[in-house]
Amino acid sequence: MTNSFLVSSVKAREILDSRGNPTVEVELTLQSGAIGTALVPSGASTGAHEAVELRDQDKNRFHGKGVRLATNYVNSEISEQIIGLDSRDQVALDRLLMDIDGSPNKSRLGANAILGVSLANAWAVANHKRIPLYQYLNPQVDYLMPVPMCNVLNGGAHAENSTDFQEFMIVPTGAGSFTEGIRWVAEIYQILKTTLTERKLTTTVGDEGGFAPQLPSNEAAMELLMESIEKSGKKPGDDVCIALDPAATEFFIADSEEYLLSRENRRLTGTDLIDLWSKWCDTYPIVSIEDGLAEDDWNSWVNLTSRLGRNVQLVGDDLFVTDKNRLKTGIELGAANSILIKPNQIGTLSETLEAVQLAQENNFSTIISHRSGETEDVTISHLAVATKSGQIKTGAPARGERTAKYNELIRIEDRLGSAATYPGANSFRSSRK
User: What pLDDT, on the 0 to 100 scale, is given for residue 431?
Assistant: First the structure.
């Protein structure tokens, strides 16, 4: 009798992401005819320790950013070795993909090629079973919806001539459901747009849909958020909080071990920057700071965690790059208390889930995240629900590649009904005993 879960074909193609750059799409088909599709995102602010996405470097196509090499590897070398594999064994599939690649950072075949196949396989099995991906990844009775951390003001590598810090986010901690929370965010986003227009500041948006006005200082962005929250009728700190992703590696000067705030013409030591975060946390309702220090400034990370970690979520993104080995170092040193989870940083679904499990076993919170170069793929919406992470980052409530994720979560919450719980402030360290 034929096993209908066997992989019968896999096909990759070059498509476009939200920045108009090429990326990889993979379709994987099972013997049953069930098809899984995955579209791979790409980051702009990438950590040095991430798995490597393969680009063609052919200047005659997409200015060297083409991904034909990656898609060709899927259509030839990977396809030849995974056809006939039982798709239900995700770990075995992912290990085979890593073995075929043979490099320590997936640089030969490309993490973009490998992840596309890995995710498409999981979708194919879920589609064969006719169940949602979140249910396939974690079959249970009750599910936790994620609190959205929505980037409404962009700077850094995501928006030119704006703030030094990359993301200023609003977090609807006081909402009663995900759907209500995303409504609050959308309303505040529109109020923020009106405020910027009234002040003759630009309302063009950055890569993740947040506005990118030219502001006199980094703190001016915080003041805009506070004003917009209050104008919406919500109370800062009770109803809506603030989260930051400064992406400090982007403005770290390795030679002098200083942080350069170009917008303010200031140079700060690691201690100075920690003092800045401490002051801001005393002034504003900040529940989370992601990459508040550079990816290899371990000593400063330990000091930051010792100082603020009891009450503030301190998230390692470039610091950990969804790599359980770097996460183990952070756990051992006491550096950070949270990890951002981006599947394309590590390159396979099973490694992503391993990082989530290790974090949660060690009382680190987990945040499922998009990338700045995104697609309409909604895998991370399902991943957030399946892992009970309680938090998701996927940009502003604008731009189709961002709203695709939010809309999928609205659907999931609606379909789950009473089986879905929205954790609100309980997802954040400041509310934990």
Answer: 46
